[in-house]
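Page 42, continued from yesterday. The earlier attempt failed because a stray header line got pasted into the input along with the sequence. Redoing it now with the clean sequence only.
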Amino acid sequence: MNSPAPAASPATQAQVEADQERIGAEILGLDLSTDPFVSAVRATRMPMIISNPRLPDNPTVFANDAFVRLTGYPREEILGRNCRFLQGPATDRDSIRRISEAVRSQQSIEIDIRNHRKDGSTFWNRLLLAPVHDAAGELTYFFASQMDVTIERERLAGLESRNAALVAQLSDRLQSLSESEARLRFATEAGKLGIWELDLRRGELTASAICRLNYGRPADSPFDFATLREVVHPEDLPRLQAGLAESIASGADFGAEFRVLRPDGTPGWIEARAQVVTGLDGAPLRLAGTSRDITNRKNNEAQNRALLELDDCFRALDRPADLAAAAAEILGRTLEASRAGYGTIDLEAETVTIERDWNAPGVASLAGVLRFRDYGSYIEDLKRGETVVFGNAEVDPRTAGNAAALRAISAVSVINMPVTERNGLVALLYINHATAREWQPHELAFVREVAQRTRMAVERRRAEDDLRALAESLESQVVSRTEALMEAEAALRQSQKMEAVGQLTGGLAHDFNNLLAGITGSLELMRTRIAQGRLPEVQRYLTAARGAADRAAALTHRLLAFSRRQTLAPRPTDMNKLVAGMEELIRRTIGPAITLEVVGAGGLWATLTDQSQLENALLNLCINSRDAMPNGGRLTIETSNRWLDDRMAAAQDLPAGQYVALSVSDTGTGMTPDIISKAFDPFFTTKPIGQGTGLGLSMIYGFARQSGGQVRIYSEIGQGSVVSVYLPRHVGATESAESPGADPELPRAEVGESVLVVDDEPTIRMLVTDVLQELGYAAIEAEDGAGGLKLLRSPARVDLLVTDVGLPGGMNGRQLADAGRALRPGLKVLFITGYAENAAIGHGHLEPGMHVLTKPFAMETLANRIRALIEGG
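This time it went through. C-alpha cells are written below.
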C-alpha cells in the first residue's frame, strides 16, 4: 500500500497554485474558451476531481463540493496531494495496480475500488478516470468522477452464485454508466434539457442546441440574451427579469416558468432553472442552468381547468344560447385567440347567424349575419361535415382570394368546427386569430372536445325543455281530467245526497205528520172545549200537545246528532258513575226477561262528553239489544280503557292515543255483514213499521264522531252483537251525571234590569218577551241585526242581549254580538238557535259572558239561563 504523499515543497506549491489558478479559471469560467461542460462539472452532485500529471506525483488540483462530502476531507487537505491518500488496508492491490497502469499509459479506466474516508470508514468507490489533452494533443490533466456504490457492492457480495453476481454487476454497471452519462450531460438529449450560461460580466449568453429549440429557434441559429428577451411574452418578461436579478443579488438558485412567442405564432412555455457561479472573491460570475419545454404540460393544465369551468357553466346555465356563448368564451381565453363564437347556419342561404361572440381586447364582434362566400370557398367543406382549419388565409387556396376580407375581421387563421344533428349541419363553433398561426393537434382536439360537450349540453337542455313542456302539458291534462272527475264526483254526491234526502224526508214526513196531528188535534179540541166552557178537559189536551211537541224536539235533536250539528255541552265525565246512575232506568226499560250485567273497569279514565247525549246513546243501544232478544237473554254494559297504537287506531279510523270505551253486548239474533254496513244510515231499520225510526244508531254515530270518537259494531248471526263507543280520554277532574229533581222557583229580575230580544220570528219574540215581563225584566224587541245594533247604540239600558243566530239583512247573531260588545264592553249574550251553526257563532271559541240555548226550549230553562248570565254565572 502506498503511503500518503508528503507535503509539497515551496516550489511545488507555487506550481500547484499556478495550475489551480489556471484550472480554476477554466472551472469558474474565467477562460472565455471554456465549454459549458465545465460548468456542469462544478454544479453537478457527482464527486469529481482533477489532477495535474505535469506536476510531481500527479497531485489533485481541483475537487468539487460533492467529492469533499464523499470523503470527509476538507478541501485544503485534498488539493496538492495524490489521491492515494484514500487507499488503505482494505484496498485491493490489483485495483491499485490497474489504476497506476492507466495513469502511466494515459488511458481511461473505470473501476470499483475500496477507499477510506477521513474518519476511517470504508466505502466502495466507482472511479471513472480519463486523461484530458490540449489542442496539440499534449496531456494536460486527468479528470476523475467518483460514485459511492457501497450498497450495490454489498448486494452483489450477497448473491448466491457467481453467475448471478456477474449478471447483477453487469446490469448495475450498465445502469450506473447510464446514470453517470445522464448526470454528466444533464440528460440533455433524453430529457430534452437545454443547457445555458449567462456571463454576468459580459452579458453574453451561451446556449446548447436543445436550448435554442426549446425557444423555437433553429439549433444552429444565433441566440443571445437580447434574442431571449424578445421571445419572452411581454407580460412575463418583467417577472423573469426580476427573478434573475434577485437570484444574482442573493446567490439563491433561480427558477421560473414563463411564456415565449415562437416565430411560427405558436405560444409555448419554458421552465428555467439555474445556479449562480461565483469567483474566488465570492462575486457572481455567471448563471449556469437548464431550460425545459413545458408547453404540453401547461396546455394540458389549462385545458383541464377550462373543461372544469365549462362543466360548471353548463350546470349553472339553462338557455342553449347561453351555453354556447360560455363555451366560446372559455375556448377563446384558453387558446389565447382573438375571437371565439357560436353561430347557427342556414345552408340554403350559405349564411351564419351569430347572436354573440367572445373577443379579445381591441377585436370587434362579428354578431349578426355573415355570408360564407364573402370569405372563401370553405363552405363546401363545412357542408360535408369537415372541420375547416387554416393557419394563414393568404396561402390557403380556399381563402387566398379573400384574405383581405378575413384580415379585416381579425381572422387570418381560423378553426371552423361544424355542429351537426339528425338534419345535418346546424351550427358552427369557430376560433379566429388576427395573425398567422399554426394550429397544433392538441388545440384541435381541445376544440373538438369543447364542441362535443357543448352539443351534448345543448341537446340535454333542449330535451329537458321538451320534457318540461310535456310535463306541463300532462299536468294541464291531469288538471282538466281531475276537474272533470271532481265534477262527476260532485254530481254523484249530489245524486246520493238527493237519494238520502228522499229517504230522510220520507221518514220525517211520516214522523212529523203523526206528531203534528197530535199537536193540531189537541189544539182544536182545546179551542172547542174552551168555547163550550168545559175547561177541566183542556188540561188533558194540553198535556197531549206538549208531549207531541217534546217528541218532535227529540226527533230534531236526533237529526242534528246524525248530521253532527247539534249543540253539545261537553263536561268531564266519569263513565262508570253515569252508567250506574242509569242502571235502574235501563232495568225497567229492558224488562225482567233480560239479565243485565254492568262491568265497570277499575281506574277508568275520564272523558269529555255531553252527558245527556251519552245517556241517550246508552239507552238507545240497550233498547236495540232488548229488541234483538225477544225471548230474553243477557245484556252486558262494560267500560274499559283502550290505548290504540298506529295499527289499531287505523283499523278504527281514529288517531292513535288513549280512549274510553263504552260497550253494550247482547246474546240476540245478531246481524249479517250487509246489515252492519247499513246500520248507521239514517232511517235504516230492520224493525217492523211503527216500532222504530231508524235514527237511533245514526244519532249515536254522529254524536261519537262530533265528540272526536267512533262507534264500531261486532256481530255474528245467532251469536249476538257488541256495539262499542270510543271517546277520547280527558285528563282532569270529572263531574257526576245530572240527576233529575224538582224544578226550582223561577228567578226574578232585579229592579231596572233590561233585556234586548232580537229574533226574526214574531212568535218567538212574543213568547220570550212575555216570559221576561212576567219575571220583571224590561223587554226591548228588534226583528233583525240592524235594528238590534241601533238600540245598542242608543242610551237605553241593556243588561243582556238575547239573539237568534240566523238573522236576515246580512248581519247574523254572532256579528251583532261582536258589534254590541265593541259598543258596550262586557255585554252579556245568550244565543238561541234551532240549528246550531258552529261556524256562525264560533262554538268552542265563545268569549266569557256568552252562552248558547238550543230551540225548542222550556221557558223555565230560558229564565234560569238569563238570570245566570246577568249574575255572571
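Notes: The first strand starts at residue 48 and ends at 51.
Reminder to self: strip header lines before submitting.
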